[in-house]
Specification:
CATH architecture of one domain: 3-Layer(aba) Sandwich
Radius of gyration: 22 Å
Largest sheet: 6 strands, parallel
Helix content: 25-40%
Keywords: ATP-binding, Helicase, Hydrolase, Nucleotide-binding
CATH class of one domain: Alpha Beta
Structural class: alpha/beta
CATH superfamily of one domain: P-loop containing nucleotide triphosphate hydrolases
Shape: globular
Organism: Aquabacter spiritensis
Strand content: 15-25%
Number of helices: 12
GO molecular function: DNA helicase activity
Number of strands: 20
Protein name: Helicase-like protein
InterPro entries: DNA_helicase_pif1-like_DEAD (IPR010285), P-loop_NTPase (IPR027417), PIF1_helicase (IPR051055)
């Protein structure tokens, strides 16, 4: 067994494995450890690579395509003999060198095996993933794959030990280069980082919950209106509707514009298609500003509304005018003239990149860094990793408050995940 790696060396180690042609590289790290930055840097290296995600919203944030749409995989369990890549899939993946999957924690084992079989058949190469280099990025302690009750028994009958991507049969056929990202960039307080680490892994959980409750079950710090995180859409929507209704003044509705193919396969749009605003409304920016005046997750208050823009006084920044933004849905294709894989725009959605910010769901908050967060667990977190996702959005203990104490029942985690991640970090190459 090798010594645990230097936390600062995770990114360079991942790059070395990729450059050396490792067949499968898995990068795992908790919230705020730099996985998104790593993906952005990897994109800049160029080459015949594609970036995929398990859901439409995740693909949109990644600037890529969904696994299902790229490979033409129907959204159901497939038997191996049902995998029949279409002609256009065959043409594209034969030229593919690297396939990157983000949010690997949400990818089911059977889907990863279907990816493997699709690539083998499309490339006529009977090797794991058809010889394509795979880079799998995410955190199994965060949101898990969705497995309807009716399909749980079916997966067991198919020989799966569980629903997670690490249960995929293909991963037993190829050496896995393991790269943990362990240095936390989002928080700087060692005590808070330790609490979050305990809540993520389940080790030292009782002490961490006691410390967190002692520090954070209180009214939020004065003079600041935090974003409230809650488990369900219904609860978040109710908070936002009450917040808007309590304001005087005239309501202005901005309507989103959809063009081409922009279905998100059941996911919500990145910003509401009907966005109602008033002066005084609390809003969150959901895109980075090219001039870096605000970032995805910046919170502020509407102080003026124009025909196609809103004037927002940011809580941590200047007063800025935020105009309509266009999200692009991409589809990868082969550019014969350029001799490379290109992302082609197949649909767009235009709307002000703002969302009501009195409240939002824990799921929607994944990936965000928030200066001031208040958490309402209401009747309890209902998915493994949900509480950790919510608590780890906060940059500091000072900016975090809880409506009620965290209970042991809120901290759901899978023991098989804990065992896998512990072995992953201990057996790092």
């Amino acid at each position: 067994m090798s010594a645990l790696p230097d936390p600062a060396d995770g990114v360079s180690r991942a790059r070395r494995h990729i450059a050396a042609g490792a067949g499968t590289v898995m990068v795992l790290g908790g919230a705020g450890t730099g996985k998104t930055t790593f993906l952005h840097d990897l994109r800049k290296t160029g080459g015949r690579q594609v970036f995929l995600a398990p859901t439409g919203v995740a693909a949109l944030q990644l600037g890529g395509q969904t696994i299902h749409s790229f490979l033409g995989i129907p959204p159901r369990i497939l038997n191996p003999d049902e995998v029949k890549p279409r002609v256009q899939v065959r043409r594209l993946v034969k030229r593919l060198e690297r396939l990157v999957i983000d949010e690997i924690s949400m990818v089911r084992a059977d889907l990863l095996d279907t990816v493997d079989r699709t690539l083998r058949l499309a490339r006529d190469v009977d090797a794991p993933f058809g010889g394509v280099q795979m880079v799998l990025v995410g955190d199994f302690f965060q949101l898990p794959p969705v497995v309807p009750f009716a399909e749980q028994e079916m997966l067991a009958r198919m020989g799966y030990g569980g629903p997670f991507a690490f249960d995929a049969k293909v991963l037993a056929e190829r050496a896995l280069a393991r790269v943990p990202f362990t240095r936390v960039h989002r928080q700087s307080d060692p005590a808070f980082i330790a609490m979050l680490g305990a809540l993520r892994s389940g080790l030292g959980l009782r002490d961490a919950m006691e410390a967190l409750n002692e520090a954070c079950v209180r009214p939020h710090r004065p003079g600041v209106q935090p974003v409230l995180l809650t488990p369900t859409n219904a609860r978040a929507d109710a908070y936002n509707q009450r917040g808007l209704a309590a304001l005087g003044g005239e309501e202005r509705v901005f309507s989103g514009l959809l063009k081409g193919e922009f279905g998100l396969e059941g996911d919500r749009l990145p910003v509401p298609e009907r966005l109602a605003l008033k002066p005084g409304a609390r809003v969150m920016a959901l895109r980075n500003d090219p001039s870096r005046r605000w970032v995805n997750g910046s919170v502020g208050t509407i102080i003026g509304i124009g025909a196609h823009a809103a004037l927002v006084r940011l809580d941590a920044g200047p007063t800025v005018e935020i105009e309509s933004f266009t999200w692009e849905r991409l589809r990868y294709g082969w550019d014969e003239a350029a001799g490379r894989i290109e992302a082609q725009v197949v649909g767009t959605y235009s709307q002000l990149p703002l969302a009501p910010a009195w409240a939002m769901t824990m799921h929607k908050a994944q990936g965000l860094t928030l200066e001031d967060v208040r958490i309402d667990f209401e009747s309890g977190a209902f998915a493994a990793g949900q509480a950790y996702v919510a608590l780890s959005r906060a940059r500091s203990l000072e900016g975090l408050s809880l409506v009620r104490p965290v209970r042991p029942s809120d901290i759901r985690f899978d023991r098989r995940v804990a065992a896998f991640v512990a072995a992953f970090e201990a057996a790092t190459d």
